[in-house]
Amino acid sequence: MKISTSKLFLGSLFIAATFAGCKDKTAPDYSTWGMAGGNSYMNKYSTLTQIDTDNVKDLQVAWTYHAGDVDTVAKSQIQCNSIIVNGVLYGTSPALTLFAIDAATGQQKWQYHPVVKIIEGSRAGHFNLNNNRGVTYWTDGNGDERIFYSTGQYLQAIDAKTGKLVDEFGTHGKVDLHLGLGNDASDLFVTETTPGTVYKDMFITGTRVAESMDAAPGYVRAYDVHTGAIRWVFHTIPLPGEPGYETWGSKDAYKLTGGVNNWMGMTIDQKRGIAYIPLGSASMDFYGGKRPGNDLYSDCLVAVDANTGKVLWHFQYVHHDVWDRDPSSAPVLVTLKHDGKMVDAVAQTTKQGFVFVFDRVTGKSLFPINEVPVDTVTELAGEKLSPTQPEPELPKPYVRQSLTVKDINPYLPDSSKSYMTSDLASYHTGHLFTPQSKEGTIIFPGFDGGAEWGGPSVDPDKGIMYVNASEMAWILKMYDIKQNATSKENYLQAGVRLFQQNCMMCHGKDLKGGGNYPSLININKKLNESSFITFINAGRRMMPAFQHLPQEEKEAIASFVLKLPDAQKKPFVEKVSAKQEFRNLPYTISGYNKFLTKSGLPGIAPPWGSLSAIDLNTGQYLWRDTLGNDPRFPNVKNTGTENYGGSAITKSGLLFIAATRDGMFRAFNRNTGKLLWQYKLPYAGFATPSVYEVNGKEYVVIACGGGKLDTKSGDVYLAFALKDK
């Protein structure tokens, strides 16, 4: 399945040679890894060369650190890309304990334990926690060193030397992330999963919010690093009088629609003072009847003045998104040779498999982008889809984008192949923007398809991008729901209706879950009514908090999910506010379900994961290969697997990546794509590795937390190095 394009690679080397001496003097120090993503360009590139293509085969474990906090109730994860500053490595545990360890030995210096909520009646589970993909370091250069990160709704400032809260920041070291979102968002779910970015004396960050109509707005805010005071707010859903307000098709959408949030991080050009901020879809993700326009700035890359929050330019990747096609990671800054000139560019990968490349200053695309006519016929009342969607001519997509019968998995038993062929025929499919439907629409690549939150790595000298991607089909099936209570409704009837409105899109109509969302079958063996309500009030990882629901509604849902016969018989009385009336929708999705056989095997043919090298100067591929091997198909080579987490590259010609379901940590020759080394991790490494040096010795570290793709959970950070001579 490998594509060999050596002539293209030689051409790339020629291009690199023409501007190797034209480096930006303000570019970051690539010999360090002081921020998530490696540096301020987010290219995950290191100039360290001690480990190279010849000796990488001799790598061995240098140290192991157990972060603790493995969740015993449900599968925990570690998604953290470690940062290393002055010989100290900072990271987080599965329960988001922040730690500092000696980067040369793995010996712990300190830990900071955030407040966690233990659910009464459960098995010591950690709750009110979000996933975490890294932390942010700041110093004034005069001894004040801080680590910024979030747990739950609080942004926290921790003394980097002691692990103690910095009292003068916010309220005793914490700032509530609800501040600056408006009063109506005070009880809605909000947290931060991807580390914010420092510019001058400001900490600039987005947030993760809910996916449903009760989502908070995804405003981006800049905080004073000293005090925590808000310096500016960028309204990602424009207010009346602001550019973009008219694109929502509803004068009140800004009040009652949420989302459009920067959950995936941002990249700041420190020289120009421009923040490049990708923004996600508007709520609700899969139905746009309450927002019938193109909905700026949803699904956009927005260039913002980092000093003021003022929008400079924007590009929308998806108009009126109803497929959850958020841009999936922070963009990368790179300088390219284009039309004979050097251009400072910003490059963005997407879930649908596109790479968009823009001039950093003007926002002009370096390659043609066509507005392609798409199907707009929908059976959903009130829905109004965009007649066109943007598609770049180059680079070509790095994943398949349509699914037909020829793509059915050939390695299945004949009976399963026949079943999947028949099943596929019952769904709407054919292209990226097939409208959502009640019968079911194939989403391919899936909701977690294409390039995910790990993001690509990019060689700043040669302009070559390395992107790992997943290919898995999912099913988007819309489901009619009752919007309000019926007369003489009891708690069971109300619980079913409210579950459909609030919970079914993740846990499914039958409570069996799917994708990243767990089954609720037999949850009554772990939680009682009190602990269940505490759980949904707090939220957990992928699940947002539901504090905004009235107590009666939570009790009704509990009566249904926990099968409480006495509670189910109680009469239910509902009071619906104007806000709730607007947010009530006629449809929801029936769950996040992959296109799988009855036994859980992929219904589509491999590859299910890939790794590609793309020359961004020309838009051409240098090589492409599968990434990972699915252990469920031991007799099939090069299947690839779904993958989470990115790669790190080095000047010495290496690409390090874990990310795969098979739990391997791999090193490739990034010039050719040849596999040079691999190591079986104790737990799958769904995180991005970091490359750093301490006392003249080079290390590569990866967080091994497992937990995704049905893998075992762990708490290990593993560092590799060459044996001392």
Strand content: 25-35%
Measured distance between first and last alpha carbons: 39 Å
The main sheet comes to: 5 strands, antiparallel
Count all strands and give the number.
42
Helix/strand class: mainly beta
CATH superfamily of the domain at 134-327 and 355-396: Quinoprotein alcohol dehydrogenase-like superfamily
Q: Which shape, going by the Cα principal axes?
A: globular
Question: Overall mean pLDDT score?
Answer: 89
CATH class of the domain at 134-327 and 355-396: Mainly Beta
CATH topology of the domain at 134-327 and 355-396: Methanol Dehydrogenase, Chain A
Describe it.
With about 725 residues, the protein is mainly β. Helices cover about 10% and strands about 25% of the residues. The chain has a five-stranded antiparallel beta sheet with strand order 1-35-34-29-28. A five-stranded mixed beta sheet has the order 2-36-37-38-39, with no helix packed on it. Among the domains are: about 135-325 and about 355-395, 8 Propeller (Methanol Dehydrogenase, Chain A); about 485-575, Cytochrome Bc1 Complex, Chain D, domain 2, CATH 1.10.760.10. The chain contains nine helices and 42 strands. The protein starts with a strand and ends with a strand. It is globular, with a radius of gyration of 24 Å.
Index terms:
single chain, 725 residues, mainly beta, Methanol Dehydrogenase, Chain A, Cytochrome Bc1 Complex, Chain D, domain 2, globular
